[in-house]
Amino acid sequence: MDELIELLEGVRDDIDFRTTTDLIDGKVLTSFDIIQIIASIDDEYDVAIPAAEIVPANFNSAEALYALIERLKG
Fold this sequence. Notes:
There is one protein chain. Helix 1 crosses helix 2. It contains four helices and no strands. With 74 residues, the chain is mostly helical. It is globular. It has one domain: ACP-like (Non-ribosomal Peptide Synthetase Peptidyl Carrier Protein, Chain A).
């Protein structure tokens, strides 16, 4: 999880990814941020996120993203 937080902070260092749970619903992340996060996850974890998985529930928090990565890796 710490690696993911570092990855997310590399995209936006002005957000507390450990506590924020409305990254999409609260309009904290822009569409460009999301594209950067998807590309970074693909590079770092070797996980391709299918378009069907790009939904707010999977991107609202670092925990949700981590669960998505784990699910896709498994």
